[in-house]
């Protein structure tokens, strides 16, 4: 039979039809414009009026219209300073649907208006969830840097991170510690730097590295300073000092380690991350504790890592 036309949910779209030698009818030149996504049980109808050789016939079949995909256009955002006023962001979706925004970092968002809250970085993410006719678009994040408008070394001399949440250097660069102890300057890892502390001392950035040495920032990379905290007036305990018989150990940050009641491991008089043990060892600029489980534990700067039963 020949294919005379298509009928979808009372919206008729007629095209050109033909039938091949096997009796399979095809239709071309039909637009689905204006037809929503979904499955229509009798979405395609075919009919043949008959002729001198064939009687008339007709039939229907289901039509499935899939959701269309969409993409978001959201361009890069300019860097800002802490004194810049709020600004708006804009993005478009190929579907024509409204794009929404979310903010993270040192900024807030109201609708599409961004407000700077502090030096550091801000990420604005554009998204479009889709609707009955369009799938969700891939989100598009844009990150920009926020520098201190004050400049001149906004952080006081001797500022340490932690406990501070960030340090601002003389160039307005904002220093923080990110995931896996990455040392970040304006939200980007500074020349592969890793460490547990950042110190702003005499207009210089220092980092206590994962090797327990202090490292000095040169402006483009790192040079080793040594195990003693820059600007300190103390001296770390001699390598190999053990408590007992010593009464205390001074590490390379100036912290004092002792053993308190119930074998509590104390750092400056406060139990260090619930540490318990019978001995403290200062070895190669690292604090070790012989724990109540008869394993040696290494202080990481914020907690303990098991190094096993062998004496370090």
Written account of the structure:
This protein has strands at 6-8, 11-13, 16-19, 25-28, 38-48, 57-65, 72-73, 80-81, 87-88, 92-93, 100-105, 107-110, 113-116, 120-127, 140-147, 159-161, 167-168, 174-177, 182-185, 188-201, 204-209, 214-217, 222-226, 242-243, 249-250, 256-259, 264-267, 270-283, 286-291, 296-299, 304-308. The chain has 312 residues and is mainly beta. It has four domains: 6-65, no CATH class; 72-147, Immunoglobulins (Immunoglobulin-like), CATH 2.60.40; 159-226, Beta Barrel (Thrombin, subunit H), CATH 2.40.10; 242-308, Thrombin, subunit H, CATH 2.40.10. The strands form eight sheets. Strands 16, 17, 18, 19, 20, 21, 22 and 23 form an eight-stranded antiparallel beta sheet that branches. A hairpin with a 5-residue loop joins β3 and β4 (25-28). Residues 1-12 have low confidence and may be disordered.
Count, helices: 0
At CATH's second level, what is the architecture of the largest domain?
Sandwich
User: What is the number of domains?
Assistant: 4
**Strand element count:** 31
Task: Name the CATH homologous superfamily of the largest domain.
Answer: Immunoglobulins
State the name of the first-level CATH class of the largest domain.
Answer: Mainly Beta
Largest sheet: 8 strands, antiparallel
